[in-house]
Amino acid sequence: MATPVMDKAEAGAPANNSPYITITLRIRRFNPEVSDEAYWEDFTVEVDPKERVLDVLHKIKWELDGTLTFRRSCAHGICGSDAMRINGRNRLACKTLIKDVNPEKPITVEAIKGLTLQKDLVVDMEPFFQAYRDVMPFLVTKGNEPTRERLQSPEDRERFDDTTKCILCAACTSSCPVFWNDGQYFGPAAIVNAHRFIFDSRDEAGEQRLEILNDREGVWRCRTTFNCTEACPRGIEITKAIQEVKRALITRRY
User: Mapping DSSP to helix (H, G, I), strand (E, B) and coil, where does residue 59 land?
Assistant: First the structure.
């Protein structure tokens, strides 16, 4: 009696229509303990094009080179910790799909610009967060603690709703040419977070924040290049918000 012959699929062999492709991730590496110079290193990996750049970085770190250093936390576009330059553009690695960044060519990955590089894809975020703290990113009111919620109309809330979306990823600030060349500039993210409270009808420190941003390294350093708006992973109209702060500074004088 003849033995039945199984086809390849039945035998467990991989199907010809496998979704996986081979890509090259070209990462700009830097280790101050080894050298003062950064260098590019290529990693060839097999991935599903629907995977994210963050998934590929994990694969490299966990399977190929455990010394690769980068920040990440929630992996869902909420914490903002994995902002980096991917193919020359600021993006969140956890929201960038391989298929959307031309996987047929080497995909370049490097740290965001304008902040001191510490290792591989990690930069010193302290100057960025200091600028954020300097604009007083919290509600300021007078008098005693209220006995009920401070009410606000939907119209008043809508006035600053867009700028509440900021996740402090620094993608906007580190895409700004002015920030690259002037470490004292507050940067788009700080101005966006000042905007969120300047136009909040419940807040009473708008004038104080405007005076802070009226400094020579404040809002007037913006050159309206729109890099920040294009880089924002949350879709905030950052350039528009900066213009509104400028307008508030001008009109308050009349």
Answer: helix
Q: How confident is the model at residue 16 (pLDDT cuts 50, 70, 90)?
A: low
* Of the options 3.10.20.30, 3.40.50.720, 1.10.245.10, 3.40.50.300, the CATH number for the domain spanning 21-123: 3.10.20.30
- Distance, CA of 252 to CA of 223 (rounded, Å): 22
pLDDT of residue 227 exceeding 70, the answer is yes
150-170 tens-digit pLDDT = 899 999 999 999 999 999 999
How does DSSP classify residue 99? G
* Cβ atoms of residues 247 and 253 within 8 Å: no
Structure tokens at 162: 């867009």
Closest by CA position to 110, among listed 22, 62, 175, 65: 175
Q: Which amino acid would we find at residue 10?
A: E
